[in-house]
Amino acid sequence: MPNILTPVLMVTSRVTRISDSLIYSRKVLAIQPGKNRPILEVALHGGGGARTISRYALEALGRLDMDYSILKAIATRSRAEQLIRAEAVAKAVKDGKPKLRFPRERPDQIWPVLPKNRQFPIGVGTGMHHLRVLNQHILNRFQDLAEPLVARATTLTLPHRPTDPERVSKAEMDRRKAEREAGSDIPLRGKGTAFPEPASITAAVKAAGFTKLRLVCLWYRDETRLRMLTTLAKTYNLDNKGLDPRDGQEIDLYGGTITAVFHFMGDFLTHGSPSGRTKALKPADAALDASGGVLVGAWCETHIPTADDAPGLKPAELEDIDAKPQTKTILAGRDIASQYVLGKNAQGVIQPKAPDHPTEMALLDLYRSLGIIDDRIANALRPEPRHALYGPDRIAHVGFHIRQQNKRKGERTSPKIVVTATALVPPAKRGDVWQLRGWSSAVPRWQPYRSAQNQFHANQYPQEAGGKKSYRHRWDDIGAVIERALEDLVEELDGRPYVVTVDEDSARRIWDGLQNSKQSSHPGTGKNKYWLPGYSLQEDERPDAIIRVNIADDRVPPPVAYTRVLSTRDGEKEGETTNALYEIETDFGTPVWLLCNVPRNYDGGNSGRLGAKYTRWDAKRAVISENREDRRKSEMPEPWYTMTATEIFPIALNDRVSHEALAFATAQLCHQTMYWSGRARYPVALHAAIQMDEDHPQYRRTAQSADEEPDIDEQE
DNA sequence: TAATCCTCCGCGGGACGTAC
DNA sequence: GTACGTCCCGCGGAGGATTA
Where is the stretch described as Disordered (predicted)? Predict the structure, then answer.
């Protein structure tokens, strides 16, 4: 936490699952003999099913005032398990695949930590109640040796989102209730939708300088074509029955300004080598033609390649024949935004549920890739009256995303650094549409988000120039690139002020001024070349403020509960969850804000808020019953959630700035995303920048583990 | 003295779960 | 399809210790 003088003790808890084998674990928890001694975490060494105690751990344990029972226990267990393994392997020479079973007794002194996150009879997460009990325990133990951070709720009222249920006045609600009693079936509160009004899509398309939007739907499985068609019909209020366009026939979705074309594209979309794909796209050329001011978006079918697609290939090689990155690159090269939807998975052809969430979310994300901004951003940013003077709704909100992609196993190239950015630019005239501009380190110039993303996707991740650099040198160079980007942006903005949002975790290695420990010092005192984004620019070109956002679970304190002071009479009420914005009292400088989030999984309709009232030790067993109402899943395998928080820390670079106004605006832009039904962890501009990176064809995370794993028998 | 080994640490990221 | 939460591994830089 910034601007706090005393050390901050952050307490949290986690569920660690215990493995039945030690020789495949990286870590063990060890119970020390004697009373009141902490549990030790001991790292193990070696690989390939032969892990044992590391030399360093040996020394550390030796130096501790303790007997050698832990070391002996680890060594004994490692030997015993390796023996079991050797026998299984020897047997496998005769019978084929080795089958490994380790004893499943309750561990004694040594508790091996489950090395991988895989299906397990116990789910993750501790639940809210557990955190509250822990909080009380800490308060009791520390008494007045430590004091909790003081956080006060702010007056921020969160924007009403299109996805929220309809807001209904009391009079209208009464009228509807009366009508329902009279037999009508109107809903008391209409359900919200994440889909924008067709009219506002058209407005955004026109504002971007196009005459119409054409969605080109490329498919190779009838079922997928039908799902796309159904979703379009639903969101544009068309009659689904008569809707059965021929291949290549352009159908009207909304007043001639939004249309769709379907094309069967078997050769283009199925897995295989990259050669011949551009040719295979030919039949759709007319539909993809953007001349005459048409904004084109491609909506494609895909599936994850398996051994069926290319018999004989190893899992790692399947990545090379995946059509998705190949086709995405081709479409991006033609300045066409693309979005994919899975036609089948391991279970076979996907049978959509109602509503068909995957297809709907895919279509929404295509709007995002096209850079369409409707009025939801302007609605969300409406400031409190006292902030109107500074006016966060009249400034540009810029987000910079920085990521290093490390080398994966078997890769030879050096780590790559990716920087993407977006700028949410206010209209020159109030009431006009906001614009989204994009920038990337691969194509370092500001353009409409759509073009910036397409060009970024058409290019390989930039390789590091100038030979091998030191850590410091590399990040200073990235800082310089970003300063130039901001300089360019200032010209585009033509005098409108702007703020820059970055994630603390990934950005503090470039900018000293973001670090907690530097909050009381001055520019030029750190090791880094740059103090804050834009700080090296001329004074009148600098951003108004840098907004530091942090979501790291080990750096942002977890909220446990809140107290509401009742206004009507003296008294307080304890609340369990909150999604409000809180201001943290600091010892010097400005305050810092915490935006509390309730995970949707915890709050969602089916979860039943596991862990709200008791801890995992009281988890309920499964109930098997003929009676449907009595049936219940076991609670233990489910995930148990707790509240999370987003830290928002505005650092002003001039004295016009209202810190609180910027904290409010940031919270509002987390609450209202471009095209998502809930909250996002990052505000719109930063989120859109991260999305650009994650949709890149080279952003893949299908790394193969070389580590040998025991075959765990399916049982229970 | 330079090269190599070893471990810590920061942080990227994979896997799995739920929600809409 | 995307989003987030949880919890673990493991890469690669930094820097000390060891070896050629």
Answer: 159-193, 695-716
A600 touches strand B (CB under 7 A): yes
Contact A309, A318 (CB under 8 A): yes
Nearby residues of A343 by Cβ (< 8 Å), 6 or more positions away:
A219, A220, A221, A223, A224, A301, A302, A303, A349, A350
Q: Which residue's CA is nearest to the C1' of nucleotide C5?
A: A641
State the virtual CA torsion across A173, A179, A180, A184 in degrees, nearest 10.
-130
Residue nearest to nucleotide B18 (CA to C1'): A601
Q: Quick one: pLDDT at residue A214?
A: 96
3-state secondary structure of A651: strand
Confidence band, pLDDT 50/70/90 cuts, at residue A167: confident
CB A320 within 8 A of CB A305: no
Query: Is the per-residue pLDDT at A213 higher than 90?
Result: yes
Predicted confidence at residue A411, as pLDDT, reads 65
- Tell which residue, A609, A668, A706, has the closest CA to residue A128: A609
Domain A198-369 adopts which CATH fold? Rossmann fold (3.40.50)
> Strand B closer than 7 Å to the CB of A193?
no
Choice between A560 and A61, residue whose per-residue pLDDT is larger:
A560
Backbone angles phi, psi at A519, to 5 degrees: -65, -25
- Which range scores top for mean pLDDT: A203-217, A457-471, A525-539? A203-217
- Do residues A217 and A260 make contact, with C-beta atoms less than 8 angstroms apart? yes
Does strand B come within 7 Å of the CB of A604? yes
The residue extents of the domains of chain A are: 27-119, 198-369
**Strand B contact nucleotides, protein CB < 7 Å:** 6-8, 10-20
**In terms of pLDDT, which residue wins out, A21 or A95?**
A21
Tokens of A560: 């446990």
Nucleotide closest to residue A361 (CA–C1')? C1
What is the mean pLDDT of the segment spanning A440-453? 93
Nucleotide nearest to A404 (CA to C1'): B12
- List alpha helices for A34-163, DSSP H: 55-63, 69-95, 128-142
Mean model confidence pLDDT for chain A: 84
